[in-house]
Amino acid sequence: MTKTWSILRLIMAALILAAVVTEFGNAMSTVPAEGSSEATVLVNFFSYFTIQSNLFALAALTAAAVWALTRKSREPVWIAVLLAAATTFMAITGLVYNLLLRGIALAATPWANEVLHLIGPLFLIVDLLFAPPRRRLPWPTVAAIIAWPIAWVVYTLLRGELVVSPLTGEGWWYPYPFLNPHVQDGYLVVSFYVAGIAAAFTLVAWGVVAVGRRRDVPEPVAVS
Questions:
Q1: Number of domains the chain contains
Q2: Does pLDDT of 4 surpass 50?
Q3: Does the chain have fewer CB atoms within 10 Å around its N or its C terminus?
């Protein structure tokens, strides 16, 4: 079963990589509006949380699969934490996209868009529930997991007003409309979205760690 799941993880990682590369090509084909630049297009691409979460998933799935196929010992703590973070980030990516962004027209390749926002998140959830149990993680791991999205929100809001949109030439750029104060009538509305998303991240991270702890069997303590 371990070998089968490792192969499935590698296949999913390859599919995610293909989707990210495809969308990267789409992004870099953009001709920047006056006042913007190709460098801005590049940084903007990696500023999408969708891309970041899928890169986390790519790294976690690859590392876990390679470790399981080449070592006889259990995965180290860093791989278990990486898997937990990737599962949390991908679950939120899937939820936010399909609840808030599904109806918005995107300049994206359809199959790649579905991999990044639906197939990948579903695979990580299935992996959490049915793959060989992951290493049991302590509860403070939840704080470590949510540190990344908190830092991302701060980065996004600080950078947003300093960037000229490559598509429209407007004097701001935000990866998602619910973080854009110009679309949401100010930062107050944005703050409600941020609070809701932060709560969702915390809840999902707690659930991921809880499932991992419940499925894993604690290693016996040697008695001398």
A1: 1
A2: yes
A3: C
